[in-house]
Amino acid sequence: MDTVFTSFYPYSHSRNSLPSTSPSTNDFPSHTSLSFAKFVFTKQSSLRGPFNSHSIKVRASEDGLIPPTDPQNEDFILEDVPHLTSFLPDLPMYTNPLKKTQAYAIVKQTFVSPEDVVAHKVVVQKESARGVHFRRAGPREKVFFKSEEVRACIVTCGGLCPGINTVIREIVCGLNNMYGVEEILGIQGGYRGFYSKNTVQLTPKSVNDIHKRGGTFLQTSRGGHDTNKIVDNIQDRGINQVYIIGGDGTQKGAAAIYKEVERRGIKVAVAGIPKTIDNDIVVIDKSFGFDTAVEEAQRAINAAHVEVESVENGVGIVKLMGRYSGFIAMHATLASRDVDCCLIPESPFYLEGQGGLFEFVEQRLKENGHMVIVLAEGAGQEYVAQSFHASAEIDASGNRLLLDVGLWLTQKIKDHFTNVRKMAINMKYIDPTYMIRAIPSNASDNIYCTLLAHSAIHGAMAGYTGFTVGPVNSRHAYIPISRVTETTNIVKLTDRMWARLLASTNQPSFLGCEAVQERFANKMDDDFHNLKITSI
Ligand SMILES: Nc1ncnc2c1ncn2[C@@H]1O[C@H](COP(=O)(O)OP(=O)(O)OP(=O)(O)O)[C@@H](O)[C@H]1O
Ligand SMILES: O=P(O)(O)OC[C@H]1O[C@](O)(CO)[C@@H](O)[C@@H]1O
Ligand SMILES: [Mg+2]
Q1: Which residues are catalytic?
Q2: Is 303 strand, coil or helix?
Q3: With bands split at pLDDT 50, 70 and 90, how would you rate the model's confidence at 75?
Q4: How far apart are CA 130 and CA 43, in angstroms?
Q5: What residues are in contact with ligand 1 under a 6 Å CB criterion?
Q6: Within a 10 A sphere around the Cβ of 379, how many other Cβ atoms?
Q7: Among 156, 157, 402, residue to substitute to test ligand 1 (most atoms within 8 Å of Cβ)
Q8: Taking a C-beta distance cutoff of 8 angstroms, is the pair 307, 460 a contact?
Q9: How far apart are CA 300 and CA 296, in angstroms?
């Protein structure tokens, strides 16, 4: 049976208290300097997901490496992030200047222990395996950049999201105030800005109040990722820390940049900060700006409710963002209490017949005289495509462009009640799509953005690269980029949250129809997401 060894400590216990002379020699273990690292092991059969580049896989018998016998650590997995020393083994390291800064002068425990890890799953049973862990984010005692040597850049890609400007501001202010970094460049207009636009110099002064505005101070774009041109540009400009803010597509781009940097063997730390209004990035608890968007969605839902309760047989439809993941719609519905029915991409629905949407609308109109439907933009796309005979279009990044399910549903309900039921209804369709993401972040998202920015800075300064930061069970962690791009976060219909929504709205689950049941059965397995994407 294969045994998997994972490097656990960047340096051994005895080496944690390194002399404060700087630069010190690098004693980071490379993949081969196994004697410095403590290993934990697990049986390969118990592993889920791919290994990142910092996991070490060896056959004990082939390599003659016998793991320390530690029954306590059996089944403990560290999904570690790459480090610059894995391809630049002789990099010098320095004492972290943080302790000398105003902010951290009296902090009791300034540095995160290299032993600190964050558990992926916190609900366990007595007999559970210890499972997957990520390296805890935060400042390290030793850094791999001298402050005056750092030349950082920030880029924002993909769609907007509340809080992007806060992240930009806090990267600039954090680098400057905590590490004394002066050279920070803004890459304008997304990935293509690396090679097609001039950079802007970012200072704490120039970004001082950008967090009060929505959007991105640096502008954004889709498409235009050309890895070679980007890395050429990074080299030409002497950039050695790259902070990349964006969604799943952006993180894939960040992984490609990291790999090319590693191939060229240049000292450049690549840090990803996950951004997605749809909350569709896996592993992390929640994406920044999500709460703000849900809050803003309340205004649209409230408007719909006011409109429909003021007329006879009022039916309100509110369309919210959510390409493949219905989190915004689900959370906005749960928060509002004015919503009668929530339709999301993950949950199939049908219109006609017993247990269908038309029947439910009629029932609610009879009971209450009005009703509100919240609709995620990605819901029911296959029906809309059939009705409109539309061909698939994609954006510059290759994302499928969605058809307007809100308009489609509005028309379907109108037709049904006017022509079939001969019943007058008052339809109100509200489409606040961009309004919920084009606003500044709320108070809690602002704090969250600050933590993300700081975690990214500490990680890059400590020499980590090819990582994404984010909270895992409320603790910020460094997560290998590949881990957050391999799959997409979707609402699991089998989880209690969706059951809570159904229990709150008392809407039909739409499982009465045979065709839906068949699709639902397919969706229940882990491949649901892939099935969904290809089927629409
Ligand atoms: N597989 C990939 N490899 C390299 N770059 C990619 C990849 N997918 C997307 N990108 C690049 O990442 C950038 C953003 O991608 P995309 O438009 O899909 O937005 P996103 O980051 O997923 O954000 P959002 O959640 O707002 O859609 C684009 O410039 C695109 O070219
Ligand atoms: O900004 P664009 O290109 O119109 O894209 C909108 C899409 O971006 C997102 O906000 C994030 O992926 C989706 O919810 C939405 O479908
Ligand atoms: Mg995306």
Answers
A1: 278
A2: helix
A3: confident
A4: 12
A5: 157-159, 190-191, 222-225, 246-250, 252-253, 256, 276, 397, 399
A6: 27
A7: 157
A8: no
A9: 7
Nearest ligand, CA 437: 2
Say which residue the tokens 């799943």 belong to: 248
- E strand or H helix at 365, and its extent? helix 357-368
| Better pLDDT: 17 or 309 | 309
Cα 342 to averaged position of ligand 2 atoms, centre (Å) = 20
Report the pLDDT averaged over residues 458-482. Answer: 98
Which residue minimizes the CA distance to atom 1 of ligand 1? 252
- Is residue 340 within 8 Å of 372, Cβ to Cβ? yes
pLDDT band at 12 (very low <50, low <70, confident <90, very high): very low
| Amino acid, res. 215 | G
CA of 485, closest atom in ligand 1? 1
Do residues 169 and 218 make contact, with C-beta atoms less than 8 angstroms apart? no
Q: pLDDT for 279-296, tens place per residue?
A: 999 999 999 999 999 999
Whether residue 149 has pLDDT greater than 80? yes
Position 390 scores a pLDDT of 74
Rounded Cα distance, 514 and 524, in Å: 15
In this prediction, does ipTM exceed 0.85? Answer: yes
Q: Which of 31-45, 120-134, 506-520 has the lowest mean pLDDT?
A: 31-45
Ion ligand 3: residues, CB < 5 A: 247-249
Cα–Cα distance, 324 to 93 (Å, whole number):
44
Can you give the pLDDT at residue 523? 56
Higher pLDDT, 39 or 212: 212
Q: Are 205 and 109 in contact (CB under 8 A)?
A: no
Angle (deg, nearest 10), helices 227-237 and 248-264: 60
Collapse the DSSP code of 439 into the 3-class scheme (helix H, G, I; strand E, B; otherwise coil) and give the result.
coil
- Tokens 């110099």, residue located: 201
Q: How many residues does the chain have?
A: 536
Q: Which of 245, 65, 228, 87 lies closest to 153, judged by CA?
A: 245
Q: Is 159 in the pocket of ligand 2 (CB under 6 A)?
A: yes
Q: How far is ligand 2, taken at its centre, from the CA of residue 159, in Å? A: 5
Residue with tokens 């994972």: 6
Question: Is 277 touching ligand 2 by the criterion CB < 6 Å?
Answer: yes
Instruction: Please state the residue numbers annotated as binding site for ATP.
Output: 159, 222-223, 247-250
Determine the distance separating the centroid of ligand 3 and the alpha carbon of 40, expressed in angstroms: 35
CA torsion sign for 139, 145, 151, 157 is negative
pLDDT digit string, tens, across residues 34-58: 222 323 333 333 222 233 334 433 2
